[in-house]
Amino acid sequence: MKRAGFTMIELIFVIVILGILAAVAIPKLSATRDDAKIAKIGTNLATAVSDVGARYTSQGKLSGTWADTTNVPLQTTATGMTSASATSVTTAVYLNSDATHNCFKLTALADGNLTIADGTDTTGTICKTAQSRASTLVKTHEFGGIGIVQ
Question: What global pTM score does this model have?
Answer without folding.
Answer: 0.75
